[in-house]
Amino acid sequence: MFEFELLHADGAARRGEVRTPHGVVQTPSFMPVGTRGAVKAVTQRDLVDLDAEILLGNTYHLYLKPGDDLIARAGGLHAFIGWERPILTDSGGYQVFSLASMRHITERGAEFRSHLDGSLHMLTPEKATDIQAQLGSDIAMVLDECVASTDGIDGVRDAMRRSARWAARCRERLQRLRQGPVVGVTVTNPGQAQFGIVQGGIHPGLRTESVQATLEIGFEGYAIGGLSVGEPPAVMYDVVGHTAPQLPADQPRYLMGTGMPDDLIECVARGVDLFDCVLPTRNARNGQLITSRGLVVIKNARYAEDPLPPDPGCGCYTCRHCSRAYLRHLYIAGEMTAATLNSIHNLYFYLDTMRRIREAIMFGSFERLRQEFHQTFSRRPLQ
Ligand SMILES: [Zn+2]
């Protein structure tokens, strides 16, 4: 049911297709983040209009509310949220490490208190696999131990090795679920694939060891985790450039939680196929529009009577219908549609950048696109 086809390569950049039980994803692809079964401020209809081909759902949030049992009874996450296209779910580990009010890590798993009501939970590799089986995502992720970027190499090594042991348990559990019914677990998507995660921080030797351990277990695809946690972009690019080429060419590669549009281009250039990040939607809600020439910080007084769209070169609904002056007014007035219109633009910019990347790879002009993009794009406010 799950397949990856490499259609074309241009240098290390890859153009491919991920086939899942809920349809095909053209890669390189960006996945909008639908944390709690919703991409904040936009509807599933907006996402179809934007031609988002795959969404990401957060297991930690969905497990706590409304609960994976409830979602399984509704027929799985696709049915519950009314989204017929592919979904990837994370393992919940990252949120346990970043959100839970208390956590205690042992070899068995991660014990934590819910950030919502303080209730006590235990997330083991088996439990993370079961929850995702009940959610019925098309791609499930293994549970890994996340470490801070400030942790020393010994802490990073220990977490990486424990993550490999947890990954083996996740795989074993999924194989068991594939063999036949398990009491208490409703498998809502029998064609679900599972990706392993390469850890090892910014240390090339640990990354290589993690690649070997993860490949030895064997998954339908591989993710690079533990990046975009505060390290400079150049360091992240080095780690991706070191790790991605060691992963199998005939399987998809997913860089977790990255990043700005120029990060996406640089990591495509190093052989990554799938991305996710909250940045376009989070920035949108904070009034930051990401454009081909820099950030439009919409609350800025200079936009009060600006009749131009956020990005005159953009074809999104927001840029076709709204001036900067109107968007500034909505934002300052606290209108909910400010978040919606800004999110539509930012998501369009990301998805359109990926479309242009895919086209360039097919035509063998990726390097030219990369140069042109860097010449105009800026992370700083528009001048
Ligand atoms: Zn736009």
Name its key features.
383 residues, nine-stranded parallel β-sheet, 42% helix, three-stranded antiparallel β-sheet
Your description of this structure?
With about 375 residues, the chain is of the alpha/beta class. Helices cover about 40% and strands about 20% of the residues. It is built from 15 helices and 17 strands. The strands form 4 sheets. The chain has a 9-stranded parallel β-sheet. Strands 1-2-3 form a 3-stranded antiparallel β-sheet. Strand 14 (about 255), helix 10 and strand 15 form a beta-alpha-beta unit. Helix 10 (about 260-270) runs parallel beside helix 14 and helix 13 (about 325-335) packs across helix 14 (about 335-365). It is globular, with a radius of gyration of 20 Å. The relative contact order is 0.13. The model has no long low-confidence stretch (mean pLDDT about 95). Bound molecules: zinc ion. Zinc ion binds near residues 316, 318 and 319.
Shape descriptor reads globular
Question: What's the gyration radius in Å?
Answer: 20 Å
Largest sheet: 9 strands, parallel
- pLDDT averaged residue by residue: 97
What's a quick, concise take on this entry?
The protein is built from 15 helices and 17 strands.
How would you summarize the topology of this molecule?
Layout: E1 3-10, E2 13-20, E3 23-27, E4 29-31, E5 33-34, H1 44-49, E6 55-57, H2 59-64, H3 68-73, H4 77-81, E7 87-89, H5 93-98, E8 102-105, E9 110-113, E10 120-123, H6 125-135, E11 139-141, H7 153-179, E12 193-198, H8 204-217, E13 221-224, H9 233-243, E14 253-255, H10 261-268, E15 274-276, H11 279-285, E16 288-291, E17 294-297, H12 317-321, H13 324-333, H14 336-363, H15 366-376
Parallel strand pairs: 4-15, 5-6, 6-7, 7-11, 11-12, 12-13, 13-14, 14-15
Antiparallel strand pairs: 1-2, 2-3, 8-9, 9-10, 16-17
Helix pairs in contact: 6-7, 7-8, 10-14, 11-14, 13-14, 14-15
The chain binds zinc ion.
